[in-house]
Design a protein that fits this description.
Elements lengths: L1 E6 L2 E3 L5 E9 L6 E7 L6 E7 L4 E3 L7 E5 L5 E6 L8 E7 L2 E2 L3 E5 L2
Parallel strand pairs: 2-11
Antiparallel strand pairs: 1-3, 3-8, 4-5, 4-9, 5-6, 7-8, 9-10, 9-11
């Protein structure tokens, strides 16, 4: 099985930036794609960005041009660079891979 741990969340002002990181351990050979998702209070969990093992990326329309998903320098890490953050980006952000979810990291955008 794969274990996923997110980090990098926090409180940021509108217009600011944050970088989230997801570290995988365990059966990482089984990972062929990775995604970032988010869930705001009262809302369903939604896809934010995904990346395949070949590097193909996909983004939700709401974050295109502001968020960027990539692999980290370490083989088993993935990043989500979030720029020009808006209050509506406030949510718990989760990474997902190989059918597994991390515990989530809170991102709050507020002045």
């Amino acid at each position: 099985q794969v274990q996923l741990v997110e980090s990098g969340g926090g409180l940021v002002q509108p217009g600011g930036s944050l970088r989230l990181s997801c570290a995988a351990s365990g059966s990482i050979y089984s990972i062929n794609a990775m995604g970032w998702y988010r869930q705001a209070p009262g809302n369903e969990r939604e896809m934010v960005a995904t990346i395949s093992t070949l590097g193909a990326t996909n983004y939700a329309d709401s974050v295109k041009g502001r968020f960027f998903i990539s692999r980290g320098n370490a083989k088993n890490t993935w990043l989500l660079q979030m720029n020009a953050l808006k209050p509506e980006d406030t949510a718990v952000y989760y990474c997902q891979a190989a059918g597994r979810w991390g515990q989530g990291t809170q991102v709050t955008v507020s002045s």
